[in-house]
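User: Reviewer 2 asked us to show a designed sequence for the structure in our supplementary figure. I'm pasting the structure tokens here. Could you produce the per-position amino acids so we can include them in the response letter?
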């Protein structure tokens, strides 16, 4: 159950939420406003919008839309009340429900709306593909995604018809966690997404969107959501894509963000696989020939992994959580972790053992520790 209680959010977060719902007001404009407000958007929420909007460093169309708002506080209240009615959560960058990998990306939204329960930290792979692949491919995609998820890897996609949706179902078949980033607000689902949502909520899935309530999907929102699919994942895998497939935007978004990109090769006479083959030919993706290659690329060894759901973040000790925050997605030595933590050697040893047994950390030979 999501928590959108009014007292959960700070004044700064409420101001940010209100501004994010104004059409045309994106991350760059927010930074200009923050500088205008001397570093605190909450200053703007403390007085009527009419008192400062004429001086705000914003494009005229955005300024006109803001002028229709009496106060940021009242707007935030209306948005949160609507979210509570439809069961929609709000996660700000840095909070546990906000995908950790997105925080470090340049064009990440400051907040996300979500439905579902975000599980513990884990490695994740974006699995994307065409809406209308060649006949017989969808069962293969679903099976492939199920096998990936059986290794404890989360599956991220876009809930679109075709390959994306088959991958979500495959992850749910395995009892794994799957995330869907949508090109519409979460209260503007299309009929197929509305039918899929209950299965997500019942089987460990999460719907995400950067779009505030009431925004419908359009030709511009889908390409932008692709950057979130790639940014929230450790690896991008294109399973099936023609030369005009939107999945290629996700592959490019992953490449720009430094994510490894994999592509499943196809028959050279199959136009539906031409996009995947071109990615491999041009050196923009590495050929993926097995589930094992996906596991290796994300850094997961299923033989050593704790089964999904066995480890609980809420049950970890304060010391274990602190040690986890110091660890990276690349192996670090015990001494490196110790130097950056506030724990004694004995306490750190205990914390690392707890993290490893709970499935949040892998220990490599040479006493090297890495986040899962």
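Assistant: Here is a per-position design you can include in the supplement:
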């Amino acid at each position: 159950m999501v928590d959108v209680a009014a007292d959960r959010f700070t004044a700064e977060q409420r101001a940010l939420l209100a501004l994010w719902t104004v059409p045309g007001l994106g991350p760059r404009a927010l930074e200009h406003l923050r500088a205008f407000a001397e570093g605190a958007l909450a200053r703007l929420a403390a007085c009527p919008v009419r008192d400062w909007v004429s001086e705000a460093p914003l494009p005229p169309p955005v300024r006109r839309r803001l002028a229709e708002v009496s106060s940021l506080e009242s707007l935030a209240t209306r948005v949160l009340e609507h979210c509570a009615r439809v069961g929609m959560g709000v996660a700000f960058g840095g909070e546990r429900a906000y995908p950790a990998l997105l925080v470090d990306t340049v064009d990440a939204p400051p907040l996300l709306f979500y439905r579902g329960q975000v599980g513990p930290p884990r490695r994740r792979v974006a699995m994307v593909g065409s809406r209308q692949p060649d006949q017989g491919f969808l069962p293969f995609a679903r099976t492939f995604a199920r096998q990936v998820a059986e290794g404890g890897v989360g599956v991220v996609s876009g809930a679109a018809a075709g390959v994306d949706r088959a991958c979500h179902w495959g992850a749910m078949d395995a009892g794994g966690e799957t995330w869907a980033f949508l090109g519409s607000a979460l209260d503007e689902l299309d009929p197929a997404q509305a039918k899929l949502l209950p299965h997500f909520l019942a089987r460990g899935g999460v719907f995400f969107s950067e779009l505030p309530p009431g925004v419908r999907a359009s030709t511009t929102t889908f390409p932008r959501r692709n950057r979130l699919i790639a940014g929230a994942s450790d690896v991008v895998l294109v399973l099936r894509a023609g030369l005009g497939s939107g999945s290629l935007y996700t592959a490019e978004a992953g490449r720009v963000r430094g994510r490894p990109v994999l592509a499943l090769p196809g028959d050279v006479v199959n136009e539906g696989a031409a996009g995947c083959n071109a990615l491999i030919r041009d050196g923009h993706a590495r050929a993926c020939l097995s589930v094992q290659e996906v596991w290796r690329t994300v850094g997961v060894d299923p033989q050593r992994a704790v089964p999904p759901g066995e480890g609980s973040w809420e049950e970890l000790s304060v010391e274990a959580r602190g040690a986890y925050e110091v660890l990276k997605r690349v192996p670090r030595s015990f001494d490196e972790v110790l130097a950056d933590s506030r724990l004694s050697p004995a306490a750190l040893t205990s914390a690392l053992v707890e993290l490893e047994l709970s499935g949040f950390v892998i220990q490599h030979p040479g006493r090297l520790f890495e986040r899962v």
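For the response letter, you might also mention the following. The chain has three domains: 6-86, 114-298, 313-371. The chain has 16 helices and twelve strands.
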